[in-house]
Amino acid sequence: MASIVHRLINDGHVFGESDIVSERLEPGICSKNEFVDDNSVVRARGLPWQSSDQDIARFFKGLNISKGGVALCLSPQGRRNGEALVRFESEEHRDLAIRRHKHHIGQRYIEVYKATGKDFINVAGGSNTEAQAFLSRGGQVIIRMRGLPFTATTQQVLDFFSRDPNQCIVLDGEDGILFVHYPDGRSTGDAFVLFASEEEANKALKKHRDIMGTRYIELFKSTTAEVQQVLNRSMDPRNPEQPADSQLSPLIAQIPQQTTLPMLPQNFITSGTRRDCVRLRNLPTGAQVTDILTFLGEYSQFIVYQGVHMVYTSQGEASGEAFIQMESEEAAVLTSINRHRRQMIFANKKRIIDVIPCSGDDMSLVLTNGMPMTAALPPAVAPMIQRQLIPTAVSPPTMIPTSSIASLPYQMPQPAPMQAFQHHPAMTHIPAQRPAYFPPILYWYPSPPVSPQNYLAPSGPSVIVMRGLPFNASCQDVMNYFQGFPEVNPETVQLQRNTEGKPNGDALITFSSRTEAERAILEKNRRMLGNRFIELFLVS
């Protein structure tokens, strides 16, 4: 640097006022009425989901970002979607930021594009006076709490952080806590908490998944922009029943890694004649686990650990049904009495939901299409364990496949079973003969909890089905479609063919983690390849 300065002086350059560069991002508040220059904003894409505003500020180190100038974007479901809007103090710094296009955070390259002031205001701007007062207290770090009991009080939150181990102090006591409510005053189960320093905040984060009452609480770092977004969304009267963070559920646990049994019959979920389960019918097609939890309201506290079971068709589409395991028969009956034939508001439309008590045996009967199954693994299923439709490097989800259904005792005439075949790169997953008909399939799938800051996904690779490819599409076309995902390469792409050996318009793409697979779906689903819309489905 000294030699550069010396050369500039020798060339006659005169240094005027020095440009002061901020060492770290300063917190700040953005109002809906504030003017933001269009020439000062960029959009960053491809961010790791766990990135904080300070991580993004470090990516743009050496450039001055306005106070509170990093706004992490949320999807309609409340998840961070891998994008952020960044506001700089000057157009010059904005232009320098664009030069960092395709620089890396870790192993991920980040795309940087121009954006407008309106884009930034739409994400970061707020008009909620309660939020403004909360954010103006000057806390260095904001922690978001999710999964709070609906009756939680500020004193209970203070007690949660003050108990050992990892005792920490909330800034300004009760005034440093902001609960999120719907327009009618009901709690969403979320709250934001201020801490005076990074040290206190780090101690607080060690309480992630600690218990308050009967609920475990999830904690992660937040930002001023996220507070504004969540408050704006929760108080929107056009969507009164929609939760502020509708994809974040504390009730669904991590799916265990499967080793010895890649495909598990669904009667292993639960069994018995006790009517301690409820069956939900007529769910909206796009409804997620947290939509169900919101619909059940206070009765969701009676759901057992890992007890929400969404039901999907063989095409990976929601069937409109779900089964929920409750703590007791009384809880199931109480839930049914109070929620049966009630309305669920989803996408601004109302649906009447059936809530019916049932037993574990009833659940298994429905999930196996009316075929009785014993608790032990039937001998007829054993041969299916050696034959996988997913590469052995991939851990498939818990499901009962068509082949297992066809192998079990059943009163109706059975289709001809699919025969095993030798694997060949050009003829991936092609059965030797086509069965006369395919019985319906229902897949059971327990969604893992999703936190923008802490995503608990099953370990191991995940597979995406790519549907709608032109029949002449090549592996290179698929790689070009997933530009920005360096792990998509010829070794992870499998173009599928029909029984006649011709391309069927599908491909399987293996990702190293579920996080990357879901990011790929979020960014690439329903994009164009040539003149074709491409659909993406997660199958593992």
Automatic annotation (TrEMBL):
Occurrences of domain RRM (ranges): 40-117, 141-224, 462-540
One Pfam family, short name please?
RRM_1
Q: What are the entry keywords? A: Repeat, RNA-binding
Q: Name one GO molecular function term.
A: RNA binding
Q: PROSITE patterns of this UniProt entry? A: RRM
The domain of life for this entry's organism is Eukaryota
Q: Which Gene3D superfamilies match?
A: 3.30.70.330
Question: PANTHER family given for it?
Answer: HETEROGENEOUS NUCLEAR RIBONUCLEOPROTEIN-RELATED (PTHR13976)
* Protein name as it appears in the record: RRM domain-containing protein
